[in-house]
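Input chain follows. Return structure tokens only.
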Amino acid sequence: DNLMRNLLLVIILLFSLLMSFCAGEQAKKKTSLPPFRITADEMEIDLNLKTQVYSGNVIFKTNYNSTKLTCDKITSDSNSAKNTTMVRASGNVKVSMVTTPTDKNNSPLSINGEAPIITYFMQDDEAQLKMESAEINGKKVMPILTSIDKDTGEKTVVTGKTIIYNQKTGKLTVKDGDVSGGEDKANG
């Protein structure tokens, strides 16, 4: 009987230690966006819902890959600027960034894109851009992302219903899309 009780206590203790470790690992994950700045003609803050809406000539900038979004409107969710987990840009959205390679075999890329809706968010410790299509004035408008290798000038153009770009890994996930590539220095 004592053996069973001691065994049960050891199991509970091990389970508690495992849960503490998992909670600590989860706490280390970044859930907030890299530091950023938003400028706009108007800003509306709802302190109860913890949302912000920026409208009119909106510019979102972060030093992470020199990312810049320009648009008509940005909505963000946060309880403070340091805890913003997502910004959603809509209306004439354009994005630009320059990647910094983590591998000496890769070249920096100049990336530009347009989409009806772009969401900038964190997932698994990595900043990501989700570009989405939308119907505007009865017409389906698809996102487009252009990447130019800064060393070779090689250009890649991606279109699709949804494009997700992982800024850390450089991985693109395209749904219902098309990719074209090659050198295009003259029309870059």
